[in-house]
Amino acid sequence: MDFYQKLGENLKEARIKSEKSQEALAKSMGLSRVTVVNIEKGRQKVMVHNLVEAANFLNVNIGSLIPNQQDAPKLNDDVITKINKKFTDELKANSVQDFVRATFSSINK
Predict the structure, then answer these.
(1) Which ranges in the chain are annotated with CATH 1.10.260.40?
(2) Residue 14 to residue 92: CA distance in whole angstroms
């Protein structure tokens, strides 16, 4: 489960616990019900100010909506090794932009 799916799940759980409808939540956030559905399903990213409005409306701490660090994707050893190798290889790069471009292209291989 990615970050936005977990955030959406947390939002939905808080909404249900608060006994609020998607329609009411959407209105409080200045969004459409369809947008709230998409946020709850993790298909659409939510702006920070909308998340604050949702937390206030649902009477929850905004931190309870944001996924825990344990839920965040982790860099595995292979990816870290690739980054370190690329960093060493690209120290001679002409610019930081070249380094970043080369690093991300090697990770995606």
Answers:
(1) 3-69
(2) 50
Identity of the residue numbered 52: V
The highest-level CATH class for domain 3-69 is: mainly alpha
Q: What is the pLDDT along the chain (109 residues), one digit of tens a residue?
A: 688 999 999 999 999 999 999 999 999 999 999 999 999 999 999 999 999 999 999 999 988 899 875 545 555 677 667 766 665 665 555 555 665 666 666 665 5
Three-class secondary structure assignment of 27-51: HHHCCCHHHHHHHHCCCCCCCHHHH
Tell which residue, 36, 46, 37, has the closest CA to residue 66: 46
Residue 22: Cβ within 10 Å count? 19
Instruction: Compute CA distances 101 → 42, 73, 88, 95, 97, whole Å.
Output: 28, 21, 14, 10, 6
